Amino acid sequence: MSVPPAHEFDAVVVGSGPNGLAAAVTLARAGLSVQVLESEETLGGGARTLDLGLAPGILHDICSAGHPLALASPFFTKFDVRARGVELVAPEASYAQPLDAEPAAIAWRDAERTADGLGADAAAWRATLGALSRDQDLVVELSLGDKRSIPQALVTPRTLAAAPLFGALLGLQGTPAWSLPFRTERARALLTGVGAHAIGRLPSLALSATSALLGTIAHGVGWPIPVGGSQSIMDALVSDLRAHGGQLTTGHRVRTWRDVPPARAVLLDTTAGAAADILANRLPRPLEAALRRFRHGDAAAKVDFVLSGPVPWRDPDVALAGTQHLGGTRHQMAAAEAEVAAGRVPEHPVTLVSDPSLVDPSRIHGGLRPLWTYAHVPAGSTIDPTELVTRQIERFAPGFRDVIVTSRGIPASEMAHHNPSLVGGDISMGRVTMWDMIARPTARWDPYRLADTGWYLCSAATPPGPGVHGMNGWHAARRVLRQEFGIREMPDLSPDPRD
Ligand SMILES: Cc1cc2nc3c(=O)[nH]c(=O)nc-3n(C[C@H](O)[C@H](O)[C@H](O)COP(=O)(O)OP(=O)(O)OC[C@H]3O[C@@H](n4cnc5c(N)ncnc54)[C@H](O)[C@@H]3O)c2cc1C
């Protein structure tokens, strides 16, 4: 596709990831003319589903696969993907933690059932994740806010009671006292596995915040998998944007501000470093320097498999979960993450696995199915992860090799080939520490506005950080509307007859 003739848009969004599209939809819904420019040939950034040519009819989620945040986030709740025909199916078990020497620990959707399976830790699980899941909205608001305003959910007495529980769980799990309040290896490993969605040394406050958020949603709306793949969520955003006059151009990499048509506001769904490059010498010097200093985190290396049948998990309950966290015990996972942080590829890396056909049989073609996996490795690692991931799955599913038909492994160093924002394989657009979650891309009261230029950052490199929740785009769009267009009321996002 070619770029439309240069003319004035109200707003241009660079990048069509979940945050770029969330921002674009919000601005278009407010009545602005919006142009999206995307460097790749396909739209959707970290939520694309593609035919990789591995087997006829088999589609792969090349980045995100599980979508607890797309159901729970305030942006997507307002946008209401389900009402637009996107089927999000939550499996009966949200996530599973297979172990070598004992039965797997399973986080069922039902918190009670989960607690019942955790023996001596039943009461502790009920009192923490069980209780928090009844206040999912508070946990989500605390986690996905812009970290600059007081969450509205905090002002009710019921949620005021839950906030200290959230803080206590976060404080305990994020510090050397992380053995409390759980006594069994199974409960500890289960909670650590979910925290390890954020890549980094354990224990840490940021990883425990991830456990608290994703662990709470697991017993709330669950961890749904979209029928047809993640792309269906992005397609719903694109269709709403088009219905409200938005234009999208693919194959257009923005390298400098000159590559962007004149507009009153420009929102960058890019890394902090890319923003500095695009606006070189046009930002106040300290801000440009801070963006260039922005630190990326360690990496994921992806392997997409095509299988002739389901993964033969040793413990059959593991197969009922939408996502498997492979890493063994809490201490084994901590050791593997420490290796990654030290720049070494672990022998048994923390590995995430998901078989979408568990809830979506339409993903199976000719008896073949896709399997989504990735392993944590050091930033920029050049190692092909296929054998590492295969071994890690075999450890908990003997016979896995026999169902592999074909696969494609991508080293961390090559992850950016299909999305320039995955620098060195960093899937979180920056280091995941508590400070980095609050102060990304740099410590400023307004982390989205790039000084007084009319340019904004709206990607996961801003609060609240990574995930397919659209909240970075929504927070940035709110500021653009207010600061550039004097619009104080946020637009209605619910489906309308044009969609
Ligand atoms: C392997 C992997 C697995 C993941 N799994 C999950 C998961 O299961 N669940 C979940 O919630 N999250 C998951 N994530 C994280 C999630 O995908 C990201 O946090 C999310 O996509 C960030 O959205 P974004 O819009 O900020 O950026 P992105 O999704 O990265 O989108 C940025 C877009 O901007 C484009 N772009 C960048 N620079 C330019 C430029 N200069 N010019 C033009 N276009 C540009 C890119 O091509 C891309 O399309 C995963 C990520 C990866 C990589």
Automatic annotation (TrEMBL):
InterPro entries: FAD/NAD-bd_sf. It comes from the Bacteria. PANTHER family: DEHYDROGENASE-RELATED (PTHR10668:SF105), PHYTOENE DEHYDROGENASE (PTHR10668). This is Phytoene dehydrogenase. It comes from Brachybacterium alimentarium.
